[in-house]
Amino acid sequence: MRITRRQAIAGLGAGLILPGVGSWAAATGAEQAGAALTLGTMQIDTVSDGHLVLPREVLFGELDPQKVDLILQAQGIAPGPIEPPINVTLMRDGPRVVLFDAGSGPAFQASAGRLAEALEAMGVAADEVTHVVFTHCHPDHLWGVLDDFDEPLFPQAEYLMGQVEWDYWFAPETAETIDASRVTMAVGARRRMAVLEERFTRFRDGEEILPGVAAHATFGHTPGHMSFELRSGSESIMVGGDAIGNHHVSFAEPGWPIGTDQDASAAAQSRMRLLDQLSHEQIRLIGYHLPDGGLGLVERKDDQYRFVV
After folding, report:
1. Which residue among 68, 107, 212, 222 sits deepest, i.e. has the most Cβ atoms within 10 Å of its Cβ?
2. Is the pTM of this model over 0.85?
3. What's the rounded Cα separation, in Å, for the pair 285 and 270?
4. Does pLDDT of 275 surpass 50?
């Protein structure tokens, strides 16, 4: 569940505010809302790719709708479809200009695919991006690598993906064995991966993939989903992708299955483990679909958590 940073300060005192947090910033406009901070030599921003429009049953179809409604109502979420933001993380560190995920591109949902214009508004040209690091291969994370003409949007970049995730989505048989509702995802992922195959580097859990960036397996949402810890000295930030995919139900009841998770049981285990780590160690989180630019802290109370922005 979500609480504002001001409420956290008032209710909990200064204990939640870490030293050296850096600068927090919010841009104007609903779709451009983002967050910014510094971590050592890293400048980290979240950049909007727009938002998704998801029927509630896609996310919560296996759950008791009355219990879900109580949680959503407590968060002020109106009836109807859920419209999660899409927060792409941009890290600039010396010569490196790194994107964590690439947004949706032009072929997924009309409300998404805004990353290129958002980067341009920040003064970052597509050919300045040196690395694109993927949490996983769902359309709103991968499909933005190609432009309207199926050319690489980031022509100078190296692409990095976990080996397990690569092996699953690049295998031709995945489209034949995956659930019917996900076949388009599988076909679309493999097509984009094939275009860029020679420019991909694969890695394993626990590897430092770039200076100060370590990969952490958070399997379940997809077979090889990865999160990334950005660290400088004693401070760190976790780029969580979709390991924690919403700020309401998955914080209040992290063990509940979420419909967008391919392996709901494994995803719940990864989510609970990550929430426990983030709350215990007070590591800041960037969530791909969390509000206010996706950057905040995780607070635990008994078996529930809340997202503090």
Report:
1. 222
2. yes
3. 15
4. yes
